[in-house]
Amino acid sequence: METKIIGCIDRHQKELIDFAEDIYRHPEEGFCEFRTASKVKNALESLGLKVRFGLARTGVRGVLPKTAGPHLTVIGELDGILCPRHPLADKETGVAHACGHHVQLAVMLGAAMALTDPAVRDSLGGTVSFLAVPAEEYVDAKKRRWLQQEGVGFAGTGKGELIRLGEFADTDIALTTHVHMVPVEEDFYLGNPSCNGFSSELITVEGKAAHAAVAPWEGVNALSIANSAYQMMGLMRETFQEKDHVRLHTLIREGGEALNCVPDRVVVESKVRAGSLDTIYHIREKVTRAFEGAAYAFGGKIHRERLQGYLPVRFRPADTALKTAAKYLDGYTYREVAQSDFNNACTDVGDLTHLMPVVNFTYAGFTGVLHGADFAITDWDKAVIAPAKLMALTVYELLKNQGEQARRVIEDYQPVFTQEEYVDFVWKIIENR
Ligand SMILES: [Zn+2]
Fold first, then answer.
1. What distance in angstroms lies between residue 135's CA and the mean position of ligand 1's atoms?
2. What's this model's pTM, rounded to 2 decimal places?
3. Is 336 helix (H, G, I), strand (E, B) or coil?
4. CA-based, 20 to 30 A from 113: which of 81, 107, 216, 301?
5. Which residues surround ligand 1, an ion (CB under 5 A)?
């Protein structure tokens, strides 16, 4: 069966690479990946899968005919990242596939091709879904507001919104992939390293307008308040501990309008990243004190709007199924995640890891930096073909023998939230409860 899986993906090499190349050349932003979604839908339908689409606007799910046993969901991400200097960035939106989500979709499709082979399919003791999800990359506050008007409840992340809509209610195990996100020399990195989570906020600084030359003493300079808060946050950095992996990011979304007016309104979007929710909230308090302290000093005011963040990724060592699957691929190098490995970036896969086991691996095949203008796929075999084989083989290992290994994975897993608790947790953030 393993040889059959590998042979099937080998036979479709060109089709898979063309599929990824086409998506690479047509990047789309989160929750607006309509062209990409329709391409995924057509590809899954051509394999005879039952396909549902328009999930959280652009999500697409293809299901292999249901059988009794565990339900595995193989995930691919649809969106690009805002990276206007990337040579293949969309001219209008500035979005580019500088995070490799285009190859990730091809990996999912390759796995679907192998697992729909009648002999392979009949050997599976469970259900397999292929789910293309919208919006993995950070969605900014302005766009979130627009999306909420369009009916997206959790406009901060595609996976969060799909959980809210009940799209993960039947899933027992999720399977995710990505190009390497931490420095790894090997072709494959098996398991899920711990990653940062984050909270974000839209902070409005309210001052008072006045003529900047005639009577600046009549005004309250909102930009000075924001600058002072920035200074304080900078000085606070010595209080951050290395073990907590704290990162602070701020962007000034509105910074005053007329040069001869004292700016009376500044809007800052801020992100606090750290390795645990407790630390995120602890550092968030410091940021709040910096803004409130600065506002107090100048006589201005602060308004804070909490936005949905991502939960940290819970560490998961390489699963037995993944390690067994990897043995069938000759000529590639591997490394398993270590408990001490850490990824400072964030992903909404973190949210899923709080609800269900997430079997994950990452792969090589690219040069440049993630989210950078120089990111490019340089080895299609390592970035698409071999990972597609590894994904299909892993699903097979989990579901062969009536899903014996999958059942063990499910039994051993301890969730942090039920899906209902998660939805309530996110609503509390959004509604400032
Ligand atoms: Zn990514």
1. 10
2. 0.95
3. strand
4. 81
5. 99
